[in-house]
Amino acid sequence: QVQLVESGGGLVQAGGSLRLSCAASGRSFSSYAVGWFRQAPGKEREFVLAITRSGGLRYNLDSVKGRFTISRDNAKNTVYLQMNSLKPEDTAVYYCAATSGSYLDTVGYDYWGQGTQVTVSS
User: Fold this and answer.
1) CA angle, residues 63, 69, 101, in degrees to nearest 5
2) Which helix (H) or strand (E) holds 11?
3) What are phi and psi of 64, to 5 degrees?
4) Contact 80, 21 (CB under 8 A)
């Protein structure tokens, strides 16, 4: 079992930055790929980006390329989502999730955090 807890969300003005953290407890975090997802009000959850077990970055949304990046510190069992140049359309609840399978298989993410709210004001 892996338990995930996100933190770092909040209210920020457009153009600002936030860093979200996803802290894991339980089994070795390094054996999981970790993805970040988000869900805006009235919209379906979307897969934003992921980090592989070896630390490779994989984007799914073109809209965040060049603005968002992900990193992991396996010694701390933590994955970080750095979000820069935030836009109002980035407003959503952000979730981290872990998978022992392929990071591309969005239905294969076995473990989810509770989510953290990010609100970007214009």
Assistant:
1) 95
2) strand 10-13
3) -105, -5
4) yes
Phi then psi dihedrals of residue 63, to 5 deg: -65, -15
Measuring CA to CA, which residue among 61, 64, 70, 63 is closest to residue 20? 70
The dihedral built from the CA positions of residue 23, 36, 95 and 11, taken in this order, carries a sign that is: positive
- Sorted by sequence, the CB contacts under 8 Å of residue 114 that are 6+ apart come out as 5, 6, 95
Burial class (CB in 10 A: 0-12, 13-18, 19+), 64: buried
In tens, the pLDDT along 46-71 reads 999 999 988 888 888 889 999 999 99
Distance CA 89, CA 38 (A): 11
